[in-house]
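User: Show me an example of a complex going from sequences to structure tokens.

Assistant: Sure. Here are the input components:
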Amino acid sequence: MSQEVEFFFDFGSPYTYLAVTQLGRLTEKTGAEIKWKPFLLGAVFKGSGNQSPAAVRPKIMHLMVDLQRWVKLYGVSFKMPSAFPINTITALRMALAAAEKDSVARFSGRVFRAYWEENTDISKDEILVGLAADEGLDGEALLARTKDQEIKDQLKANTDDAIKRGAFGAPTFFVGKEMFWGNDRLTMLERHLLGK
Amino acid sequence: MSQEVEFFFDFGSPYTYLAVTQLGRLTEKTGAEIKWKPFLLGAVFKGSGNQSPAAVRPKIMHLMVDLQRWVKLYGVSFKMPSAFPINTITALRMALAAAEKDSVARFSGRVFRAYWEENTDISKDEILVGLAADEGLDGEALLARTKDQEIKDQLKANTDDAIKRGAFGAPTFFVGKEMFWGNDRLTMLERHLLGK
């Protein structure tokens, strides 16, 4: 039986985008299954008492340099979005709606690329509908579902669950009770999955 | 000509200890020279507007787990000291005095091991004198030198210099203007030194 990796994400996190570009390699190497779990990173910072790295000026300056090093190492495309930070709540709710159609990875992967590679404003309903359509999904239906209390509650529940289990940033991965935080801990996660 | 890596350190940082265990491998692989530069991490947090990870409860909880993963990966010895955090100012000043005798790496390496492997109270003068003696150094002379304004000023100057150049935590490495932060960026530093 393949191991399950819970992957808590918010589209607004650049290191989460970087991690997303490596998930295919991770699952190939380990046979693990990724369970995509949208959460609200802002609420995670607040709930855990942590602060966004963007709150500390020298940290954000260095983060920009560090991101480019990872982009080079991974050989991926990356463009700092003009709208940053951005409101991701509708996109995250649509990801939950997509999960009901077994399409959360496809939809979310598309949104990550749109924001972090194509400088797309992912706070806008019509943009999100179009991104869903790119993946052959009914974007209008997903958007409609974001108005339902059930989906709103799910996003809050994911966020609260992550905080309760020790999360304080993103990306956050869980394998059972074992937590891994950060794109830079993907190799640790991989080692764990391989029983090293 | 070999490249110089400025290595800003404070004995009180566990991730800096971890990095220290890998410096031999780094210099072997890259031919770089490490210039050990003691600084006061507490002042760096304050001066940069950053906060110690120890200030955020879920972060410190996770840090303990993460440290053990690195200990396993590196195959090094590690024991969380009973006195933590600890006052490192005399030890750092002695490291500066040791630098005048071209012995900063030897003295500092011994202090890192004493604190992070042997649960030694490195805030105490007599302990520090003994650790210097372990390395064949005149500990009393190094300790006497810590009372001199010149050494006190040097520690402050190193700290201010690091903050001015963008440091906000430890360990911090510089190769010219390129900054690398964290034990977990040693591979990035290595790639940079190898021109990758």
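The lines above are the inputs; the final block is the predicted structure for all two components together. The longest strand of chain A covers residues 4-9.
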